[in-house]
Amino acid sequence: MPEEGPHNEAIESIIEGKKMEAYAEHRTKEMHVCALCGAIGYRKLPMRLVGSKWICIDCLRTLKETMDGLDQWEAEIQLEREMSKKIDETLRT
Predict the structure, then answer these.
(1) 56 CB neighbour count, 10 Å cutoff
(2) Cα angle for residues 72, 37, 17 (degrees, 5° grid)
(3) Residue 59 predicted with pLDDT over 90
(4) What pLDDT is recorded for position 91?
(5) Of these four, 30, 63, 81, 86, which has the most CB atoms within 10 Å of its CB?
């Protein structure tokens, strides 16, 4: 009879594993993968549907910061182009 204890524990463990598997499968519909970083979003990592892709809040923040600095970035690029154009004109004359 001493084998009955570990045997019961093994069966209990298998039953708990099956319960967790069923729960995870049930909740999978609520889980999404970030299209940018690959993070899996559930309750602790909010996600947004952008078009047909899910994006996590961390990637959205990074994207927003980038977009907020876009005007300055474009101005720097334009300035570089103008400087390059003036240098080319100066070298040609």
Answers:
(1) 22
(2) 155
(3) yes
(4) 84
(5) 63
